[in-house]
Amino acid sequence: MLSKVAKFDEMGGVDGATRIPYEKLAKWLTSVEPEFLASRRAQAELLFRRIGITFAVYGSQEATERLIPFDILPRIIARAEWAQLEKGLIQRVKALNLFLADLYGPGEILKAGVVPSELVYRNPAFRPEMAGRRVPHDIFVHIAGIDIIRTDDDGFYVLEDNARTPSGVSYMLENREVMMRLLPDLFAQHRVAPIENYPDQLLATLRSAAPRGAGADPVSVLLTPGQYNSAFYEHSFLADKLGIELVEGRDLFVKDDIVYMRTTEGPRRVDVIYRRLDDDFLDPLAFRPDSALGVAGLMGAYHAGNVTLANAVGTGVADDKAIYTYMPEVIRFYLGEEPLLKNVPTWRCREKEALAYVLDHLGELVVKEVNGSGGYGMLVGPHATKAQIAEFAAKLADDPTNFIAQPTLALSTCPVSVASGVAPRHVDLRPFVLYGPNGASVVPGGLTRVAMKENSLVVNSSQGGGTKDTWIIDDAPLARV
C-alpha cells in the first residue's frame, strides 16, 4: 500500500540529502542570486506571452484564457531510471491496443470474466459502431499520454491512461526551447536527452499507420475543432511542426468513401487524420447530427479502410478510471507478463464492500468520476469542507458505478522558483508514447505538471497548474534514487 504521509522530494529524497541526478542543479542554485531567478521567471513569462501559449481555466474569475505558469527549474531523471519507466510505458500501451482490438472484436477478455462486460458495454465512451470493425494495422492507440506519479523512492505509479486525444506535448517542446534560451549555462552542465525530434517521430508514426493502399507518400492532416477550443494553440503548433495541414471539418469532404481536402489546387486525397476532435463530433451522419465540426461520411470512409484516424474511434473506453483498475489483469491476460508499472491502489465504488469503505473514509480519500478529466468532478477529502463531503456521499449513494476512490497520495515534490525563493511543489509526469506498425517509442522526458499553489495536489493546467521542463540525463547512474 502506498504511504499517505511519506514526502519524497525529487532533489532531496526523503532524508534531505541531494540525490545524484540533482547534484549539479543544487550546486548551481547556491551560485545564483534570487534576483537572477526572478529576472529569468519574468523573461520566461514574456516569451510565453509572445508565443501566445494559453489554456482555458474554466471557472476562473480572472480570465477564460491565460498563460500556463512555467517554472524555470528542470525536473531531472537519471537515464537508467528512465529506461525502466520506458519499458513499463511501452508494455502498457501495447496491452491497451490489444485490449481495444479485443473489445471491438471477439471480446475474449469479457468472455473470460477478467473485465466485467457491463463495465464496457454501459460505458458512454464505448462505440457499438466499431463492433466487428478492424482498423488499419489493428492499432487503436497511436499516441498515448500516461500520467505517472511518484510518492517515495519505490519507483513510479500510473495514475491514469489517456488514450483518446492526449494533450500537452506542445508545452513540453516549448518548455525545452525556453530553457535552452534562458539557462544555457545550466543546460550545458548536463547531457540532456533531446526531445526536438518528437515531431519527426510523430509524423513517421502517422505515415506508417496509413491504410495499406495509400501509396508511398500518404497525406496526413490534423483535424481541430477550431480556434475556440482550449487546446487550439497546441493543434496549430503541432501541425506547423509536422509540416501538415491544420484543417477543420469544413475543409474536408467525403466522396465514394474517400476523404478529400479542399485546396486551392483542387481536391486532394487524405490518408491519415490526426484528430483532436471527440468521437461525438466526428461525423454527423454517425454520431451527433447537430455537429458542425465533423465531416459527413467520415465513418463510411473509415469503415471502408480508406482513411486512418489517430487515435481510433472508441479508444475513450480505455480512459475510463474503472477500466484503469483492471489494467494489471489486462496486461497479464494479453501479454502473459507482470506489469512493470504499478497502479495506484483503487476502490471501485461499484463494488459493495469498496463503496462501504469509501463512504466511511471520504475525508481521507480522493474520489473521481470514472469518465472525468482535467481535475473536474473530484473530491480531495482532506481539503474538502463538510458540505462537500456530504454532497459527494449523496452522489456516491445515488450512482456508485460512476466513481472510483484512491488514497490521498503525497505526490513527490520538485524545487520550484517562486517569489519567496526556491520551494517544493507537488508534480506528476505525462510521458508520450507513440505506437505504430513499426513499433513503439517514448519521447525522453514528457510533460511535468506542477501544482503551483503551496500544498496543492491539483496539477492540471485547466485548473491553474503549471509546467516545467523534464530532463533525462545520461551522466547520472541509477544510485541513491
UniProtKB/TrEMBL annotation:
Gene3D superfamilies: 3.30.1490.270, 3.40.50.11290
UniProt-listed InterPro entries: ATP-dep_Glu-Cys_Ligase-2, CP_ATPgrasp_2, UCP005522
Signal peptide range: none
Pfam family membership, one: CP_ATPgrasp_2
Record-annotated Circularly permuted ATP-grasp type domain positions: 74-451
Protein name as catalogued: Circularly permuted ATP-grasp type 2 domain-containing protein
Species whose genome carries this gene: Methylosinus sporium
Phylogenetic classification of the source organism: Bacteria, Pseudomonadati, Pseudomonadota, Alphaproteobacteria, Hyphomicrobiales
